[in-house]
Amino acid sequence: MWEKINTFIKDVRSEFAKISWPTREELINSTSVVLVFSAAFAVFIGVFDLLITFVWDKFLF
Predict the structure, then answer these.
(1) Which of 4, 26, 53, 56 could form a Cys-Cys staple with 22, CB 3.0–4.6 A?
(2) Residue 2 falls within a domain, yes or no?
(3) Measured between alpha carbons, how far is 61 from 30 in angstroms, rounded to an integer?
(4) What is the pLDDT of residues 12-61, one digit of tens each?
(5) Residue 22: which residues within 8 A CB-CB, separation 6 or more?
(6) Do the domain assignments include residue 3?
């Protein structure tokens, strides 16, 4: 059993060595893009919700 655990740990270390980690600048840029698009999508959904609510209240009841 210990042999399997040791093999697993060695394999994990080997795989982590192959990873291409982003630089700090790349990470900040990617995070900024995600935050901007998330905020824009939230605004879009909010405006769409207000429009649907207005139409629902004005014309259906």
Answers:
(1) 26
(2) no
(3) 46
(4) 999 999 999 999 999 999 999 999 999 999 999 999 999 999 999 988 76
(5) 30
(6) no
Length of the chain equals 61
In a domain, 49, yes or no: yes
Domain range for 60 is 24-61
More confident residue, 28 or 1: 28
Q: How many domains does the chain have?
A: 1
Residue 1 lies in a domain: no
Q: Is 43 helix (H, G, I), strand (E, B) or coil?
A: helix
Predicted confidence (pLDDT) per residue in 32-45, tens digit:
999 999 999 999 99
Hunting for tokens 């959904």 — which residue is that?
45
